[in-house]
Amino acid sequence: MKSGRISILLVVAAVAGLGFPAAVFAFSPQNSALAISPQVTMISIPSGSGITQSSQGYSPASVVVVIGVNNTVTWTDNDNQMDANGYTPNHTATANDNSFTSVSLSIGDQFTYTFNSPGTYMYHCKIHSWMNGVVIVKGTATPTPEFPLPFVVLIVALGVAAAAFSLARRGSSPILPTSAP
Ligand SMILES: [Cu+2]
Fold first, then answer.
1. Cα–ligand 1 centroid distance for 154 (angstroms)
2. pTM beyond cutoff 0.85
3. How far is the CA of 71 from the centre of ligand 1 (A)?
4. Higher pLDDT, 161 or 69
5. CATH architecture for the domain at 35-138
6. CA–CA separation, 97 and 109 (whole Å)
7. Distance, CA 17 to ligand 1 centroid (Å)?
8. Residue 120 vs residues 31, 40, 127: alpha-carbon distances, Å
9. Percentage of the chain with pLDDT > 70?
10. Cα of 137 from ligand 1 centre, angstroms
11. Beta 72-77 vs 132-138: how paired, if at all?
12. Model confidence over 91-116: pLDDT tens digits?
């Protein structure tokens, strides 16, 4: 039964092919919540924000963050452009719903806030009416399997097909026509 042996080998290969990636996936460090080191999302208040009324005053003005990944946001006042009186303007980052606000930031100052609830947070500068931005907060990301489901299904289907083929061959072999000499 040569074909039977080959079929069994195929089944073993299919099981190994399924099991090995599954084990790699299960034990890969990026699937452990502890292995993720949260990143700080940086937003700059760029030079000229206090003067250029066509600018939104925050860069980037729109950010998307994910809880547990990069949901701590730091604003940095980099606005070094002096006003008519020779002063660099101060700024704030203030939620439209007042859920958070910085103090008045001078150049070089930073304000850090951690978002712990999904939602859309519009914010603005209390000093410059044209300055506004938005932080979109998403829930915890679910890890994407390295071996997608269709691939796993294909491996299992190959194994099942090989086993079925093997059984069919075994069952039908007694009535197979014998080749004429
Ligand atoms: Cu401002």
1. 57
2. no
3. 23
4. 69
5. Sandwich (2.60)
6. 23
7. 58
8. 27, 18, 22
9. 69
10. 23
11. unpaired
12. 999 999 999 999 999 999 999 999 99
For residue 138, what are the β-bridge partners? 66
Distance 166 CA to ligand 1 centre (A): 75
Q: Using the mean position of ligand 1's atoms as its centre, give its distance from the Cα of residue 118 in Å.
A: 26
Q: Name the 3-class secondary structure at 39.
A: coil
Say which residue the tokens 């150049």 belong to.
Answer: 107
Q: Dig out the tokens for 36 from the structure.
A: 């993720």
The tokens for 143 are 């890890």
Per-residue pLDDT tens over the stretch 146-158: 667 777 788 788 8
Which token pair is 164? 């079925």
**162 to each of 2, 7, 20, 27, 45, how far by Cα in Å?**
13, 5, 19, 29, 63
The pLDDT of residue 1: 47
List pLDDT tens digits, range 118-144: 999 999 999 999 999 999 999 986 666
CA of 59 to the centre of ligand 1 (A): 13
104 Cα–ligand 1 center, Å: 9
Q: What percent of the chain has pLDDT over 90?
A: 54
